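BACKBONE STRUCTURE TOKENS:
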Amino acid sequence: MKGRGDGGGTADTFRIAEGRLGDEPTVTVSAPDGQARATLALRGATLLSWQVARGAPGQLTDSTDRTELTDGYRDEAELLSQDGVRAGLLAPFPNRVADGRYHHGGHGHDLLPGVVRDRLIYHGFAREAPFRIVEATATADSARLLLRSTSIRPGRYPGYPFALDLDVEYTIGRRELGIGIRARNVGGTTAPYASGWHPYFTLSRPRPIDDLVLQIPADTLIRTDASLIPLPGKEALLPLDRCPDLDFRTPRRLGDAVIDACFADLAPGPDGRTKTVLSDPATGAELRVWQHGGYMHVFTGDTLARDRRASIALEPVETTTDAFNRPEHAAALSLEPGRQREFRFGVTYLHAYLP
């Protein structure tokens, strides 16, 4: 693998180097001019840090000129605890499965066998799965990492007797980070499957997120019960015209809004990408979280154990919460033997100094 383990690469290409977070293996990608740097843990293929230069190209003098744009796990203990699911890749299901139970293929499945109380399960297994680097390439403009996990197998995870190979592809440029999650069914039966991403973004640190401005090109809110499980059928679909407090189609300051909600009917732009935009009027900085299809889940971090409301989770997801129990999602979830499916998303950083 080019650059593997030695910080290698030529002077005019992105550099790729392996490292450690405690005992956990990591990989760091750096732009040749220092304009960008990203670090991921192989556990869960988890993005730990993404830094981009604040000034104009060519003006970077040292690492302090880069700004941290994500609020990821800071040490090995946080990564292992999975508290907040910081930048977790969500598969084979995003968000919650009601009561930890679902039916598929005429059979009932229990993701929490033997558990009587606190039957909360969310965000799948991939975020803790071991990944390995199978390919890494670098050019003058970007680096590409392909990571693979073969850990999802019958008997490995209770209530999920299916076999999937997961490939995660990161493409890291000077001011854009793209991710693709691809699942292949390597078993003999059709598997229910969906994916997503749970990143926390920060533009205002050390200030809270209240003064940031959010825009979501969505026409519909997914209504939920007190457990954040969507209401049955069409009851779950609420036009945002009828919910002005959560209507962000026109850019709005977050203020003290407490949000843990899913937005549907996303409107793509001319390039086919839907873009959720987070901006800081105080600095002119802007993040555009893009995705191809799916839904956008927003969480303002009010219940985080560390640094509440210091960042905001903008989560591209393929399906709504509890999709495993919703008949209208059954066809989209079904991944037949030998077939594969990919979900692509990412984020672009813009600044007044950048063209």
Remarks:
- The chain has one domain: 15-350.
